Amino acid sequence: MQPGIFLSRMVFTAVLGCAAIVLTSCAAYRVPTSAYGPKPGDPYFETRRRAVENPLYDYVPRKREQLHCLDPRWLTWCLLGNEEDGIFGEYAGAKPYSTNINFRVFLAWSVLRNPLHNFDRYTIGSAAWKRHYDFSVLSFGGAATARAMSNSAKWKKTDDPVFDFGFNDFKPYLKCNPWRIDFFLGWRRGGAFEIKCRVDSKKRKPRPPAFIVHNDCT
Fold it and tell me: With b meaning 16 or more CB within 10 Å and e meaning fewer, what string describes 29-64?
């Protein structure tokens, strides 16, 4: 198949999928989005109320339990949704990610800061499992100099090895964070997939205070 024909078919399929999502955006959910609104007494009641009433939730479901089997919005739930925190980050911890509820905040939270959240956790991940299985093949550092064939589910939360290779929910995971570099690849504990390479600013040693010379001569 010629590249031009293949690209044209891909574009046509994408346009068709978007059209299907737009056309079905007014279709009723199994559970209305309003069911996930804030409770009385919530200190951020107004922000979370505006979030749940935002029309973007007509296109991106708040929860997967809202969807019928053949609803095209499974695609937007998978690629843009956030089961735990909402697409605006309105339930991101004790307080919302932002008190503004608009398209810009949606892009900042769901696209830039937490891309493919539901896809990583539920589509290719196993975060929905009621029980998780964590097994380390080989690790160095942390509570022990070296460990082999260890049940990492029994490790303490503060046990942080420098190198760890194993399987979480029967899927591979590699962690390597020497010095200031953190590298993660695979399915971490809890079942979510991640790939990350970053400089950890918390590992930087604090700079010594500047030496100041006082001249007391008068």
Answer: beeebeebbbeeeeeeeebbbbbbebebbbbbbbbb
